[in-house]
Amino acid sequence: MKLDNFYVDDKMVSKALMSSIDDYIYLGDLTTNVFFVSQNMYDDFDLPGRLVEDLVNVWGRLIHEKDKERYFKSIDDMLAGKADSHNEEYQIRNRKGQYVWVHCKGCLYRDPQTQAPLSFIGIVKKPSSLGKVDSITGLLAHETFQETLQNLSADGMLDNAGFMILGIDNFTKINTLKTHHFGDIVLRNTAQDLTGLLPESVQLYRFDGDQFAIFTPDGTRCSLRAIYETIQAYTSHSHSAEGQTYDFTMSAGAVRFADISDIDEKAEKCAAIALKEAKANGKNQCVFFEESMLDYKVREQAILQDLQESIADNYAGYHLVYQPIADAATLRIIGAEALLRYQSKTYGALYPDEFIHLLENSGLILPVGRWVLSEAIKMCAKWRQRIPEFVMSVNVSCLQLKDDDFPHIVETELEKAHLPADSLILEMTESYFVSDSDIIADALSKLRKLGCNIAMDDFGTGYSSLGRLTNFNIDIVKIDRLFVQQLYANHFNHSFIEAVIRLCHSAGMKVCVEGVETCEEQQSISSLYSDTLQGYFFSKPIPPQSFEENFIAQPDCMGKYAIKEELPPYCIKMSSNKDLLLMMMDAVPLGFNLWNHNYQNVECNHAAVKMFDLLSEEEYLDHFYDLSPEYQPDGTPSMQKAKEYISKAFEKGSCVFYWQHQKLNGEPMPCEVTLVRIRYKNEYLVAGYTRDLRRQLRIEALCESKCHVYDPLPEAVMIFDIAKHACVYANPFMLEFVNAKAYPLQLDQFLMPPLSMKELIDLSCHQLNIGKRIFTFEFNLLIKGKPTPVLASSTYLSDHHDYLMITLNRTELKPEVSL
Questions:
Q1: 3-state secondary structure of 707
Q2: Gap between the Cα atoms of 82 and 76, Å rounded
Q3: Highest-confidence range of 117-126, 258-267, 317-326, by mean pLDDT?
Q4: Could you say which of 104, 332, 706, 767 would form a disulfide bridge with 775 (CB–CB 3.0 to 4.6 Å)?
Q5: Same fold flag, 10-130 and 707-818
């Protein structure tokens, strides 16, 4: 039979395909831009019907924002004649509102003569037909890799194949110093880029964390190394995402299936061992698995055996060391963290990372964890006899929290030691708090009801964000030492620590900063108002006897390094009583307001309202930023400069500066502002004192304008600020006349009682106010202790009658008044 004679009805074929294939099918007439979609495609996605006009754009609106650009570019390339097919993976929103990964392949058919697009036909693979897909990268997941491996092994198709596990080096730093969201973007971009770089025969999978796996049917060492060199070339240059640049390298552990037996059981383990070796040898390299690498497994088994035997031998070899925890303000030692150490019979002293994971993986952490808890609680009870406020911090594993008896165990150990529950801090990492485990959530709830303090350890290195921090029911947040180590090298770390402290305090949580190693770090972090500090600046973890000698016997031994900030009793009372604080604010004659860490103006006094001719405190607070021009005289935006000064006051304790204010009508108001850090209800605020400089500047301008006239005169001249009854200028002749060194001149000390400077000014003003231009009078001055008669003349210096000028001489003019 000739193919030309073979005929099948197109509609019948379309209907048969759409009803017999699980995946989604679409057929499009590009001359009318109308598409026909399969029933399941209509059922699963938010489409207007099975006949859809302009499906390309309708479908595109359902695609995830991150994938839209790539999708539309692929379509545009086809329509522009750059390609005849479309082959993309992307996330799309289904009718349930969930984003699912799909793989879309389509072909475009053109008019043979004109090359104009005629039809577009394709298939969209459902998530179920793709295998288990990783939601972040879109790659096939670990589980799918394992299933594929088993199937190929059963078919005898792995003899010449090979695979490698790839791990991003130091990926934790990307998560920590950027964000977890940014880390996901790095994983996603890496997956997409590597997919485009690798040969078509090579399959890329997503493993756990920062790991990927590569499977290739050509498993020669040469082929595997060539694949790795391609990847190494890719990681050798910088990458960017969301406006941020990042750099990274990848290590690899490679395995040839021909080199190992029992592929199903050993392949992944062997590659993981090789990857661990690559990272241990300096990273950014590929290591091929060798049988000798299994030696470390032998070591692990021997250590595990020792760990088990030690438990049976009354925990011989296990011991605790203690690292001090200090109050950040006084540096008084108020607690300790209990840390587990182990002395192996076979290998001697082991680092914690050599045996802790073995205890957890084997379940031995349950008996050992109880022993640690018991020993630490007993030691805390002993040390509290010397330091009543002493607290003990103990690390808790996930397995312990999942043990139904754990809250009861804690309660029992506390009762045995007669120790209050609030003297115990239970530390756990971030992952426990973001866990969906109801068992863990229930355990944490019971422990809090018991009265124990719950601490989140190593905050910042895992998946929690500042935004989620207040959602966790915890008492203490411990900031990881990584941020302290780069406190001065990276402004982000300083800001991060400050932000965490402020947020925690606003939510009623305390903050402990770990990894403090230098005096400079201690003082800088203390100035950010952390509650407690921990690190080698105080001591490395030490045995209990040494801890007693160094810290229990002398808990204030580090106090000499503390930033001194003593508060008198009335300040302590004011710092906890809002009504008293507000009353004292109103007693201040200057403009007074309070700032919090968010740069919000939260309170003001009556003087501040009056200064700006406002009606109420609410009007002052609502319009505060309108009471400054957009820019200060030096060109800096007022908002920016204000935040800089407030931050400086929080950090340094106080600052004084010139500030250009204005009234709501735009009238300029030069001011002097003093900011002072104050304690209020266990947190800090900044108090602002604002002094209106307009009068002072007018006096200075007046004196400056008059001094060149009055300085040379051979008679005594004084200028007085009438409102303040103060002498603001005296010429050289006057200073010489009374034997004074400089002004402001205190005239009272030269007047014969009962005459005072106030009476002198008031009398002059009274006479001038009733119509006199100049008023003359006689009185006695005490010059070198002797009464000296002088003739005085007074007159106003300005139309506003703010300033009075008085001249003194010894002429024989008849005075109007003798005093």
A1: helix
A2: 9
A3: 317-326
A4: 767
A5: yes
Which residues are within 8 A (CB) of 770 and not within 5 positions of it... i.e. 6 or more apart?
A: none
| 110-139: average pLDDT | 79
CA atoms of 593 and 308, how far apart (whole Å):
64
Calculate the CA 417 to chain-centre distance: 39
> What topology is assigned to 569-692 in CATH?
Beta-Lactamase (3.30.450)
- Residue 224 has, within 13 A of its CA and on its CB side, a CA count of 26
**Count of all residues that appear for the chain in the document:** 819
Q: Tell me the DSSP string of 62-126.
A: TB-HHHHHHHHHHHHHHHTTS-SEEEEEEEEE-TTS-EEEEEEEEEEEE-TTT--EEEEEEEEE-
DSSP 461: S
* CA 17 – CA 13 distance, rounded (Å): 6
Lowest mean pLDDT among 15-19, 56-60, 696-700: 15-19
Domain boundaries in the chain? 10-130, 140-289, 302-561, 569-692, 707-818
HSE-up of 465 (CA within 13 Å, CB side)?
8
CA atoms of 555 and 552, how far apart (whole Å):
5
Give just the sign of the alpha carbon dihedral 285, 291, 294, 298: negative
Tell the residue number behind the tokens 């020669």, with chain if given.
220
Closest CA to 723 of 755, 690, 696: 696
Among 3.30.450.20, 3.90.226.10, 3.65.10.10, 3.30.230.10, name the CATH number for the domain at 707-818: 3.30.450.20
Per-residue pLDDT tens over the stretch 565-623: 444 444 444 444 556 566 666 666 788 888 887 778 888 888 899 999 999 888 988 88
What's the whole-number mean pLDDT along residues 353-378? 93
Question: Can you give the C-alpha Rg of the chain in angstroms?
Answer: 40
Quote the CA–CA distance of 764 and 774 in Å, as a whole number. 9
pLDDT, mean of residues 51-70: 89
Amino acid at 754: P
Which helix (H) or strand (E) segment holds residue 715: the answer is none
Q: How far is CA 423 from CA 237, 390, 405, 420, in A?
A: 52, 7, 21, 6
Calculate the alpha carbon distances from 640 to 172, 637, 643, 651 in Å.
Answer: 34, 5, 5, 17
Describe the strand order of the beta sheet including 85-93 as a list of residue ranges: 51-53, 34-37, 24-29, 117-125, 99-110, 85-93
What CA–CA distance (Å, rounded) separates 510 from 476? 5
Confidence at 32, pLDDT banded by 50, 70, 90 = very high
Q: Give burial (CB, 10 Å; 0-12/13-18/19+) of 249.
A: middle
Helix, strand, coil % in the chain, rounded to nearest 5: 40, 25, 30
Q: Which of 397, 344, 337, 404 is closest to 368 using CA atoms? A: 397
725-760 pLDDT, tens digit each: 788 888 888 888 877 766 667 777 777 777 788 888
User: Residue 283, by phi and psi: left (phi above 0), alpha (psi -120 to 50) or beta?
Assistant: left
